[in-house]
Design brief:
The chain is of the alpha/beta class. The protein has 2 domains: about 120 residues, Up-down Bundle (de novo design (two linked rop proteins)); about 160 residues, Rossmann fold, CATH 3.40.50.1820. It is built from 11 helices and 6 strands. Strands 1-2-4-3-5-6 form a 6-stranded mixed beta sheet, with helices on both faces. α6 links the parallel β3 and β4. α2 runs antiparallel to α3.
């Protein structure tokens, strides 16, 4: 499934394509978009993925106006993915305004998708310190019956809509409610609010659990937390300080990141040697 020689662009393209397994993308749309991108050119990348996203979003709007909610819902979810993928090479400071715009379009498409789900997804603003964190409650049903809840903990460069694919879909299929959150350093919390990543996730997870207990149909005795990617570190750290959580999944469990970071980062030789010495 090689689409690019550039390893970073290839990784970004795979992030889009993998969501096809649960409706977040179409392989043909990803392949045709990749063919238009100039290798290694981040401006070309953003332009072409945004072009695809706008096309698919237009299909969604047309379907919605024509009274075809299923077609609209499916297209909004794919457009959400493509808008998100469009901004990946733009991360950095000063913040590129195209990144903010693409994040906003991705969020808007996800909310349009969620409004057409049955039951509808419910956007949340989760109280956190002196601000709020973006969230989304994905109910397994709308009967008010108490059910277990899965709280999704995101990764380093992910955003809330991607965890719908990775966490919410499998949770809903198994009768769990699911709460998605952009924590500090993730998704909209980083891009729109400027909240930086922090290691002490116990100070993030506790207000999320507080909020979760106010949601309809959540069984307070059956709250699980699942972290993926960097969330495999953040989730265990958070749960260690949160006794109300009954179960934890770390995907993957990250016991020690030092060796991986030392090998992956372009560190000066002197610093690399010092890290190797411990």
């Amino acid at each position: 499934m090689e689409l690019f020689e550039d390893p970073l662009f290839q990784t970004f393209a795979e992030r889009a394509a993998m969501t096809a397994t649960r409706g977040g993308a179409e392989w043909g749309e990803c392949r045709l978009t990749a063919q238009r991108v100039s290798e290694g050119d981040r401006d070309s990348w953003h332009e072409e993925w945004t072009r695809t996203a706008a096309t698919v979003e237009g299909w969604a709007d047309t379907s919605a106006r024509a009274g075809h909610p299923v077609s609209a819902r499916e297209a909004y979810l794919r457009a959400c993915t493509y808008h998100r993928i469009a901004y990946y090479p733009l991360f950095g400071e000063p913040v590129d305004p195209r990144l903010v715009a693409s994040s906003g379009r991705s969020t808007a498409c996800f909310e349009s998708f969620g409004a057409l789900c049955r039951p509808a997804l419910q956007p949340q603003e989760i109280p956190y310190e002196d601000t709020t964190l973006p969230g989304c409650f994905c109910p397994a049903d709308d009967t008010g019956t108490r059910r277990p809840l899965l709280i999704a903990v995101n990764g380093y460069d992910s955003a809330l809509p991607e965890t719908y694919w990775s966490h919410a879909v499998p949770a809903l299929r198994r009768g769990y409610h699911c709460l998605l959150v952009d924590g500090p350093g993730q998704g909209r919390a980083l891009i729109e609010q400027g909240l930086r990543l922090r290691p002490d996730w116990e100070n993030v997870l506790t207000p999320v659990v507080d909020h979760a207990l106010t949601l309809p149909g959540v069984d307070p005795e059956r709250i699980a937390v699942m972290g993926w990617s960097l969330g495999g570190y953040l989730a265990p750290r958070g749960v260690a300080g949160e006794p109300r959580v009954a179960a934890l999944v770390a995907d993957p469990g990250q016991w020690d990141q030092l060796d991986a970071l030392r090998d992956a980062l372009p560190l000066p030789t002197e610093l690399r040697d010092r890290l190797a010495e411990g």
